[in-house]
Amino acid sequence: MEHETVTGLVAKAVSSRDADRYLTILTAEQGKIECYAKGIRNQKSKLAATAGLLTLGEYKLFRSRDRYILTSGKPIELFYGIRADVARYACAAHMIEIALDVMPPAQQFTEALQTLLNSLHMLAHRGAPPEFVARVFEIRILALSGFAPMLDRCSACGRPLADGERRFFSMYGYGLICGGESCLAAAGKNAMPISGGAVKALAHVAECEPGDIFRFKLSDGVLRELSAAVPEYMKHHFGKAYERLDEAERYRSFEQEAAYIISRRGII
Ligand SMILES: [Zn+2]
Q1: How many angstroms separate the alpha carbon of residue 229 from the centre of ligand 1?
Q2: Fold for the domain defined by 100-251
């Protein structure tokens, strides 16, 4: 039995008994760990204020064999700018769900955690659009997980591709496809035309230094291309659809519809 201190982000909370919860914390020191937070739902609990969802903090844990009990916490960052906005919160939930899937239990994956924290920082403090942050996060996580799309040659025939030529992106393949008939036929309907700007953006995010992933500019058109290609590519390679962002869209359209109905009735 021993005491340990970790720095990490509270990523998931599952209720247990009345006032207790199991928390999953993404830590720098030990990767993804689960710990028991006794009494965290009590109003007077100090843990309630220091170990809530989406809180980055320093946490003291009591370890007994392979079980952890959270004993105290000190918040470092509460990401208030994210909590106040539905679209930002949905984007954070989306990225956290992906991070929970790619970070193995009790094993460091420092770059994935750093990518998540950088992305949350962009959402909370830099006013970056959630759709942009989500795409950058997804591309980088795909690259860190060994699924970086092939961008310098055709992923079907292997022919090197020049910047100016017509290229396609294969969502269910391994990256770019040349305009060759047999390559396009093999990729089928899942190959979409892709611009040079989108290829440059993919290459930058997948290959740059960790601190530079957001240091580039993107046009609305290129962002639309990435939004058509990257989530589908991720769904295929990770074998799972991530739908938290769509939930935010549904919620937002519901909000707009409600506001419209209320205004038509002359209530506001
Ligand atoms: Zn080809």
Answers
A1: 18
A2: de novo design (two linked rop proteins) (1.20.1440)
Tell me how far the alpha carbon of residue 157 lies from the centroid of ligand 1, in angstroms.
4
Tell me, in angstroms, the distance from the centre of ligand 1 to residue 186's CA: 10
Residues 6+ apart with CB under 8 A from 185: none
228 near 194, Cβ under 8 Å? no
pTM (two decimals)? 0.90
Average pLDDT over all residues of the chain? 89
**Residue 260 confidence (pLDDT) above 60:** no
List the chain domain ranges: 2-78, 100-251
CATH number of 2-78: 2.40.50.140
Higher pLDDT, 39 or 73: 73
Rounded to an integer, the average pLDDT of 70-98 is 92
